[in-house]
Amino acid sequence: xxxxxxxxxxxxxxxxxxxxxxxxxxxxxxxxxxxxxxxxxxxxxxxxxxxxxxxxxxxxxxxxxxxxxxxxxxxxxxxxxxxxxxxxxxxxxxxxxxxxxxxxxxxxxxxxxxxxxxxxxxxxxxxxxxxxxxxxxx
Amino acid sequence: xxxxxxxxxxxxxxxxxxxxxxxxxxxxxxxxxxxxxxxxxxxxxxxxxxxxxxxxxxxxxxxxxxxxxxxxxxxxxxxxxxxxxxxxxxxxxxxxxxxxxxxxxxxxxxxxxxxxxxxxxxxxxxxxxxxxxxxxxxxxx
Lengths: 138, 141
Known about the structure:
The complex is a heterodimer of chains A (138) and B (141). Chain A has 138 residues and is mainly α.
């Protein structure tokens, strides 16, 4: 149990440092990437490229081992369905992302730095998750 | 400019390594919205590691922002009403679509998931249109 928590803490910490180092904690960079007709800023493409190249290279050998080092098994999303729920959710997520330039990771890292914008965004994001789960339960 | 791109690439690799670490050691997917959702709606035995991950993200991310002025410094002065609307949409949408930029983007694409690719293309498209409307049509921000 202890090593599982240490691994999760280390992964979250590395994730947070990566977000800050890549400048993704500054929402101006995100909106600069999304604003393809304006003053385009390609930084996000380098971040996503570096991240996905790494997971593409390393996930396969990790999954081929059959089981993770500290836990009984891999817990991966089972659904492969591309349905209205997935696409509607992704579309709404994109509208929110394009509106202010925050996705969940950078917003949480910003919260750790005491960013005033994160103090508005994160509670609203939590409310959005809670609202969706409650509606889906009915 | 070149330095910014190199740092972006290096930061991206760190994010990819973070996701690989969580999968390799704990067998879990590093999707930030999903990890947060699992804290808000807890399932037995699946809560503590999520809190540890989020604590690492908030604390190390916050510290790194403080140590990297000019690179990572968050924006200030964006209209609060837009931040609240955006937060609601991001939370609702990520929960409904089972993932955000990290879950579908970094991890899903790394697993060659067609479902994640569909999600990424969809949210990229609506985000581009939204930013265009907000900046160039409505002039809100």
